[in-house]
UniProtKB/TrEMBL annotation:
Its cofactor is Mo-molybdopterin. This is Nitrate reductase [NADPH]. Residues 19-35 have a biased composition (Low complexity). SUPFAM superfamilies: Cytochrome b5-like heme/steroid binding domain, E set domains, Oxidoreductase molybdopterin-binding domain. Keywords: Heme, Iron, Metal-binding, Molybdenum, Oxidoreductase. Residues 17-46, 443-468 are annotated as: Disordered. GO terms for molecular function: heme binding; molybdenum ion binding; molybdopterin cofactor binding; nitrate reductase (NADPH) activity; sulfite oxidase activity. It is an enzyme of class 1 (oxidoreductase). The lineage of its organism: Eukaryota, Fungi, Dikarya, Ascomycota, Pezizomycotina. The keyword Ribosomal protein does not apply. Its EC number is 1.7.1.3. Residues 450-466 have a biased composition (Polar residues). It holds the Pfam family Mo-co_dimer.
Length: 657
């Protein structure tokens, strides 16, 4: 196959083979998880689809206990042969053309699994031995679905004479490859620990236009390589190679900067799960997205220097540039994107003015602005065993948006960008083609704010029993460099709409935008009034609050007695949707775009909120608006509960680090 390969042979402290980062020109798109080893005979299409589905993007099904993962087959099939451990170890180890592995008392031939395994040759570490010690570290495998797939490769059983009293082979121990992973910010919400996959809490997500490096979402398939330098190797279609050190890249080429948002293709997958059906993959909230300014060398300049002559590539439009990472993960993009003067594809060594962190690709990573990472999505009726080759490759990310903060009632005065809010109140937003200073802008709907003292003790703007002040914030983003032109907000489930104000971050000298197109996200702000519906007859108070004599205020200064009765909650659904400059807009529902992988979950973002009478921090109750997700002041933080639950589950399997 004619190809261009960019290979980064990076020095590292561990005595391990350093697989290349290949940028290859190929006549057809590659799946983004192609391993860097030489292909073995491929499995059946249904097997391959299932394997990629399960292991490429990590599952977040409940972690199984050790007893659940170590169950034995009580009645081995008499039609399958028995094998001695010595035979498996000596004849089917890492260097064998037919590597085998064991799990409990079963034997599996994983030869046809290798081309599909996203970790590439890493799986060969277990060849000739047991998977169990590896699965105790890589807990992502501890799910029923993964075990179902493994059963397709069952070829026999371990001979009973090699099993211990417990019916299992002798235990083995291995080095934990994650022991030297970077220390992460404790504020991150972790979905899996080994490998680490985490997103920032909503209140930190879009606090600034550029996401601080420690809060940038973390997405890994393997442990983080330890690097102390590096060499980049570019392999051209004719097989010629050109090598560069990282220092040479910095000295010989013009340093370029590009402002670009990166987003996992599974961002908001949890929304699709909740609103359309079960999906396989990490159940990301709205935080698998972050924005940064990247610094490095333009890929087109590097390819030209390496000797690529585009005019001689007759099939350029059909060729792909293939990148293979040190951690064995790979991705490809069309060659026209890689060499586009305005495409801004970088080989980056810097992030937000700092050296690229290990968690985000140190010492060198590719940044492809506007493109999706893992790029396969099936139809709503297609299951997990479809032929992946028939699913067209998706390159550019569709338009999306999300709510990251909600404040209601007294909480509104705590919002930094609201009038009198203090820090951040001078944000400049774009509304109707002009720049607006939020500190001088009244609420869009319902009332005009009063001056607020700097100490925050002055009450919020006056309200009536018919409304509550509300403030919302969030982000919007579209792939392909398309600019966000409008963000629509509804406070009543879509019955009525209003427009949010777009923060004009690129005009701020402190956050300039770099690049030829709008590769970064757009932050938006909205402030108005939330109708409070008339309350119907009271209903029994929840037992947890039904204490005789307990009183609270209803939000309007009126005392409400909690003598076993409470006004029925009146909930509403907040909605946001965005439109880009090509007039692409978000689909209304996830049902129409549902896919079993949960990729590209870009439907309208909905947040249901309900008023509840609860006890305030000062010992005095108040009517606050609670939601089941993580948002602003006065809201129950579900993500924190999820984080604690996942930590407890991880600790129960011995992986709580």
């Amino acid at each position: 196959i004619p190809r261009i390969a960019i290979t980064s042979l990076l020095n590292h402290s561990r005595p391990r083979r350093a697989p290349p980062i290949n940028l290859r020109l190929l006549p057809r798109p590659l799946h983004t998880t192609s391993p860097p080893h030489h292909p073995k005979p491929p499995p059946k299409a249904s097997h391959l689809a299932s394997l990629l589905l399960t292991t490429s993007l990590l599952l977040t099904l409940p972690l199984l206990s050790k007893s659940e993962t170590s169950s034995l087959d009580p009645s081995p099939s008499p039609s399958l042969p028995l094998y001695h451990l010595s035979e498996i170890h000596q004849s089917h180890g890492p260097t064998s053309p037919e590597p085998w592995v064991t799990l409990n008392n079963k034997v599996y031939n994983i030869t046809s699994w290798l081309p599909a395994h996203p970790g590439g040759d890493v799986i060969l570490r277990a060849a000739g031995g047991s998977l169990e010690p590896y699965w105790e570290i890589f807990t992502i495998h501890n799910s029923p679905h993964v075990k179902e797939i493994l059963e397709e490769y069952l070829i026999g059983y371990i001979h009973p004479s090699d099993l211990g009293p417990d019916g299992k082979p002798p235990a083995t121990s291995i080095e934990d490859p994650f022991v030297n992973d970077p220390v992460r910010d404790k504020r991150l919400i972790t979905h899996t620990y080994k490998p680490r996959n985490a997103e920032p809490p909503n209140q930190e997500l879009d606090k600034g236009f550029y996401t601080e490096n420690g809060m940038f979402y973390v997405r890994h398939h393997m442990w983080v390589p330890e690097e102390d330098g590096g060499e980049l190797v570019v392999e051209l279609p004719d097989g010629e190679e050109r090598r560069y050190t990282i220092g040479e890249l910095k000295k010989r080429f013009k340093t370029e900067r590009v402002t670009a948002t990166l987003q996992c293709s599974g961002n908001r997958r949890n929304d699709m799960t909740r609103h359309a059906g079960k999906t396989n993959g990490l159940q990301w909230g709205v935080g698998a997205i972050s924005n940064a300014v990247w610094e490095g060398v333009k890929l087109k300049d590097l390819l030209k220097d390496a000797g690529l002559e585009l005019e001689q590539q007759e099939n350029e439009k059909d060729m792909h540039a293939w990148f293979v990472g040190r951690e064995a993960y790979s991705a490809s993009i069309p060659l026209p994107k890689a060499t586009d003067q305005n495409g801004d594809v970088l080989l980056a060594w810097g992030m937000n003015g700092e050296t690229l962190p290990r968690d985000h690709g140190f010492p060198l990573r590719v940044v492809v602005p506007g493109n999706v990472a893992a790029r396969r999505a099936f139809g709503p009726n297609e299951g997990g065993k479809e032929d992946w080759d028939k699913a067209p490759s998706i390159q550019e990310m569709p338009v999306t948006s999300a709510i990251t903060g909600v404040w209601v009632g007294e909480c509104v005065k705590k919002v930094s960008w609201m009038p009198g809010g203090g820090i951040g109140s001078g944000e400049r937003v774009n509304g109707g083609g002009r720049t607006i200073d939020m500190a001088a802008t009244p609420q869009k709907v319902g009332f005009t704010p009063k001056p607020t003292s700097s100490d925050g003790n002055t009450p919020c703007p006056e309200t009536t029993p018919d409304n509550e002040p509300i403030a919302l914030q969030g982000y919007a983003y579209s792939g392909g460099g398309r600019k966000i032109t409008r963000v629509d907000v509804s406070l009543d489930g879509g019955a009525t709409w209003d427009q949010a104000q777009l923060v004009d971050d690129c005009s701020n000298p402190a956050t300039p935008c770099y690049g030829n197109k709008s590769w970064g996200w757009t932050r938006w702000r909205y402030n108005g009034t939330l109708p409070v519906l008339s309350l119907p007859p009271t209903v029994p108070l929840p037992p947890a609050l039904a204490k005789v004599g307990q009183d609270c205020e209803d939000g309007f200064g009126r005392s409400v007695s909690l003598m076993g009765q409470l006004p029925k909650k009146q909930c509403t659904t907040l909605i946001v949707k965005a439109t880009d400059e090509s007039y692409n807009t978000q689909p209304e529902s996830h049902k129409g775009i549902y896919n079993v992988r949960g990729n590209l979950a870009t439907a309208w973002h909905r947040v249901k909120i309900c008023p509840e009478c609860t006890k305030g921090n000062g010992g005095k109750g108040g009517l606050v608006w609670n939601t089941g997700e993580t948002y602003g002041c006065g809201f129950r933080k579900e993500a924190e509960e999820v984080r604690e639950g996942m930590r407890a589950a991880s600790e129960s399997t011995g992986n709580g680090k």
